[in-house]
Amino acid sequence: MSDGDEEPAETTEEAGEAADTTAVDPDTLESRLDDAEAALEAASTESDLDDIEASLDAVAADIEAAELPEPDDDDEESREAALTDHLAEVRDGVDDQRGPYASDAAETVDAAQSTIAETRWTDQGEDDLAAVVAQFREAAGDALGETFDETGDLGADLAAVSERISAAGLDADADADTIESLVAATDSLDEGVADAQEWDDLSVRQKLRAEGYYEVMGDKHKDFPPEWTALKQWEQRGNVEMILLCMEHLDDSEFMQRHCLDALLHVAKPAALDAVGQLAARRDPKAIEVVGKIGVEDGLEHIEEYVAEDGSPNLRTTALKAVGEIGSRESTQVVADQLVAERADVRSQAARALGLIGDTRAIAPLVDILESDDSETVRASAAWALVQIGTEAALEAAAEYADDRAYVVEQEATKAVTALDHRDAADASTGSA
C-alpha cells in the first residue's frame, strides 16, 4: 500500500517502450548488416533484392530507436555513425545490383532522340547519325524479335523503338537476356550520337566555309585575314546575310566587327536591323549610325534613348543624326528638346536632324535658334534645316538672314533665297501658261 509519496508504478506500455529503446545491441545490428551483405552477394533476382531491402529498412528503424552508447573519446566515431555508414554502403550495393530494366533502355533512346532533335549537326554528323540509328534499329529488332523500318526521320525511327520497348512488358528477371541486349544496343546508340560531328565542333573557318562564305573569293587574295577579302566581295554584292554571318562567327574580333559594320553602313538593308540593333543597344556609335542609314522606324527603339544621353557627346550626336535619317515625325519633340542643350555640337546636330525629319512644327524653334543662338555653326545648321523643310514659311524665315554677319549662316540663307526665286519663277511660268 502506498503512503502517497512514492512514484507511480511504470505502466506496461511505458516499460515496453523503454525496452524498445534500450534492448537493441549494436553488435547485433552490425551482425544483421553483415548478414545482409552476404545475402547481397548471393542474390540473383529482383525478389532477393527486395527481401534484402526490407531487412535493411528494419535495421534502419532499430538504429533510429536504439539508445546507442556514445564514445568516451570525442575523436572516436560513435557506434550509431558507424552503423549508419555501414547501412548506407549495403543500400548502395543493392541499388548497384538492381536492373538493368527495360525502362533504362527506353530512357536512353528518348535522350538520344532529344539530342538529335535539339542539336545542329554538320553534313558529316548527319551521315554518322543515320548510320548509328540504322545499326540501332537492327540491334533492337534482333533483341525484340521484330523489324523496324526506316522512315527517313531519325527521331521517328527512335520513337518507334522506344514505344515498343516500353510496351513489351519485359521482366528484369525473366527477360534479363533481352534487356541486356537492348541496353547494349542503347549504349552503342548513345556513344554514336555523342561521337557524331556537331556544328559547334567546327572551327570558325570551318563553319564559314560550310556556309559558303569564301565562295566569292578567287584563288588569290591580297588582304589578310581572308575573311576581310570575302567581306568586301559580299559588300559589293549587297549580301546582308553573309555580312551578318561574318559578324556572328567573328564576334571576338574587333577588327572584323568594325569592318562588318562599315559594310552594313554601305549596304544598309532592313534585314540587318535586328543584329545591328542589338549592338546599338550596347551603346556602339557605329551600330547606331548603321541603324540610321537603314532608315526604318523600327530602328528608333534601339537608338532614340541616346538622343538625351548626358555621358557621351559623341553618342548623343550620332544618335541625333541617326534619328534624323530615319525621319519619323514621332521623334520631332525629343529632337527639338536638344536645341537648348549645353553643348553647341549637340544643338547643331539637333537642328540638322529636325531638317531631315521635315516636320513643320519645328519651324518656330529653328527660327528662335537662328535668331538667338550664340554659335554661328548652330545658327547655320538651323538655316540649313529650314531649307530642308522647304515650305514657304520655312524658306522665308531662313531668307531673312541672307545678309547675316556670319558667312556660314549667310551661305545657308542664300540657298533659301534661291529656292524662293525658283518657286516664284515656276509660279510665274505656270500663270503665264
What can you tell me about this protein's structure?
Residues 14-22 have low confidence and may be disordered. Helix 3 (46-65) packs antiparallel against helix 4 (79-97). The protein contains 22 helices and no strands. The protein has helices at 12-22, 26-42, 46-65, 79-97, 102-118, 123-144, 154-167, 176-195, 204-210, 226-237, 240-249, 254-267, 273-280, 285-294, 300-303, 313-326, 332-336, 344-357, 363-372, 376-389, 392-399, 407-432. The longest helix has 26 residues, at 407-432. With 433 residues, it is an all-alpha fold. The termini are far apart. Among the domains are: 17-97; 122-201; 327-433, Leucine-rich Repeat Variant. The protein is elongated and about 115 Å long.
What distance separates the N and C termini? 143 Å
Would you tell me the structural class of the helices and strands? Answer: mainly alpha
The biggest sheet, with number of strands, parallel, antiparallel or mixed sense and barrel status, is: none
SSE order, as H and E?
HHHHHHHHHHHHHHHHHHHHHH
Poorly predicted regions are 14-22
Beta-strand content estimate: under 5%
Rg over CA atoms: 41 Å
Work out the oligomeric state of the chains in this entry.
single chain
Helix content: 55-70%
- CATH homologous superfamily of the domain at 327-433? Leucine-rich Repeat Variant
The coarse silhouette is: elongated
Q: For this structure, what is the CATH class of the domain at 327-433?
A: Mainly Alpha
What is the level-2 CATH architecture name of the domain at 327-433?
Answer: Alpha Horseshoe
**How many extended strands?**
0
